[in-house]
């Protein structure tokens, strides 16, 4: 036993996995304190743990009404957890280390590389600084714009607090709101300032820090790496297609957009395409969407944002790699080609593995929930499982009704979704050396 414990190595991915777990546990302990609830009551540990996991994993699923149940202390703990979870605790740790004049070791750089989805170790400290500065600037701009609407409605202090809270939550792609009664942003469906500001924050946060760093450095699309080009083009394509499809699916639906004018329908369709994929804010009633709209939303949640971002899912570049691999195969090409570039086999393999593992996780979670949540329709269960995996935060109303076991399952799913399928596998797998033996090749009938 002792020898086995000694052999366990704290690899970068394991450090990240443990780090996220410790932050979630610390947040839960703070949220259980009586001072964290509005009524001064001690919060049940499972609900505090669920809220902490949802915040750190920037998901937004909640078993308690965030705007009503928690005190300002509790809300502040939640938004700090969201900020740490969105940026990654390694970014904060790096910032503190640099401020204290501490030298960043090779091991710490390896952990940072995993956390930031960087291709190499060079320039990681500068990238970490850029991430922190960029985040605070964008969130500051967003909070200022939201304040023009929230201060007149809630007063100066409350308006400023609400503006900062929602700016951080939107940038970190967490659908947590303080409006109460689980209304999300439905009261502001026709407010262009709020809807477009939140949309912009979600898009910026969901594109990924490596992409924005390249935009800042290179300025022009032609000079950017293949990764940034694919992330940008895929994101734009998904947003446009999502907007068109949601507009068509919900146009006459009185439960969502049927009674709106054409301007508000377009605004709600755009916001839904942006937010329902990664953030979880909604300007229409999600549970009242058509079956086609709900199914489309489930697909968007599974895709998620881009690598190195505050969003979850299998990621946009993963989807693009799989689609272009299929196209290349149909054309009879041996390699996956995107924008006149050949994609490395390793990247292609990862794309399929991430998608398959994600699909398996959602399937298993849905099956388990079907056993623990009696009388709940399959549609609600699949939606909840996909939302937790994609760290989106959308629900058809099931989250508050979950059993104890159901809460534990969704909590674990949020954690696994935030880490990502590949990182989870690597964190639990033993270190293996390359096998020098190559076995004879044979064929299997496919299809």
UniProtKB/TrEMBL annotation:
The keyword Nucleotide-binding does not apply. Pfam families: TrkH (PF02386). It is a multi-pass membrane protein. One of its GO terms (cellular component) is plasma membrane. It comes from the Bacteria. Coiled coil: none annotated. Its main location: membrane. The keyword DNA damage does not apply. Keywords: Cell membrane, Ion transport, Membrane, Potassium, Potassium transport, Transmembrane, Transmembrane helix, Transport. The chain crosses the membrane at residues 15-36, 48-72, 78-100, 127-148, 160-180, 192-212, 232-251, 312-330, 351-372, 404-429. InterPro entries: Cat_transpt (IPR003445), TrkH (IPR004772). It is found in: Cell membrane. GO terms for molecular function: potassium:chloride symporter activity. This is Trk system potassium uptake protein TrkH. It comes from Clostridium intestinale DSM 6191.
């Amino acid at each position: 036993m002792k020898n086995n414990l000694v052999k366990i190595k704290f690899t970068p991915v394991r450090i990240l996995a443990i780090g996220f777990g410790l932050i979630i546990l610390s947040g839960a302990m703070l949220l259980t304190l009586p001072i964290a609830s509005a009524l001064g009551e001690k919060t049940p540990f499972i609900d505090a743990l669920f809220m902490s996991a949802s915040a750190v994993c920037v998901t937004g699923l909640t078993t308690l009404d965030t705007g009503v149940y928690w005190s300002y202390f509790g809300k502040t703990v939640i938004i700090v957890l969201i900020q740490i979870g969105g940026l990654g605790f390694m970014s904060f740790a790096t910032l503190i280390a640099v401020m204290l004049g501490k030298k960043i070791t090779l091991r710490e750089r390896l952990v940072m590389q995993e956390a930031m989805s960087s291709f190499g170790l060079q320039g990681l400290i500068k990238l970490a600084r850029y991430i922190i500065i960029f985040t605070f600037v964008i969130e500051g701009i967003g909070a200022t714009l939201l304040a023009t609407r929230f201060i007149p409605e809630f007063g100066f202090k409350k308006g400023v607090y609400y503006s900062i809270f929602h700016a951080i939550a939107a940038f970190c792609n967490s659908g947590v709101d303080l409006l109460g009664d689980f209304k999300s942003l439905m009261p502001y469906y026709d407010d262009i300032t709020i809807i477009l500001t939140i949309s912009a924050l979600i898009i910026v946060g969901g594109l990924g820090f490596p992409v924005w760093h390249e935009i800042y450095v290179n300025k022009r699309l032609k000079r950017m790496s293949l990764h940034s080009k694919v992330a940008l083009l895929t994101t734009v394509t998904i947003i446009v297609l999502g907007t068109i499809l949601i507009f068509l699916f919900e146009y006459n639906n009185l439960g969502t957009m049927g009674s709106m004018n054409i301007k508000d329908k377009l605004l709600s369709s755009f916001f839904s395409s942006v937010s329902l994929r990664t953030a979880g804010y909604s300007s229409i009633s999600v549970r009242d969407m058509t079956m086609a709209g709900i199914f489309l939303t489930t697909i968007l949640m599974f895709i998620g944002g881009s690598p190195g971002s505050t969003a979850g899912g299998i990621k946009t570049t993963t989807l693009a790699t799989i689609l272009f691999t299929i196209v290349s195969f149909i054309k009879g090409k041996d390699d996956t080609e995107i924008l006149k570039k050949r994609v490395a086999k390793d990247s292609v393999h990862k794309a399929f593995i991430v998608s398959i593992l994600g699909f398996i996780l959602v399937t298993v979670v849905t099956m388990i929930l079907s056993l623990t949540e009696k009388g709940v329709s399959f549609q609600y269960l699949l939606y909840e499982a996909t939302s937790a995996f994609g760290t989106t935060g959308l629900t058809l109303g099931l989250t508050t009704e979950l059993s104890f076991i159901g809460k534990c399952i969704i909590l674990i799913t949020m954690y696994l979704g935030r880490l990502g399928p590949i990182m989870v596998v690597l964190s639990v797998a033993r270190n293996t050396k390359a096998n020098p033996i190559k076995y004879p090749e044979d064929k299997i009938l496919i299809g």
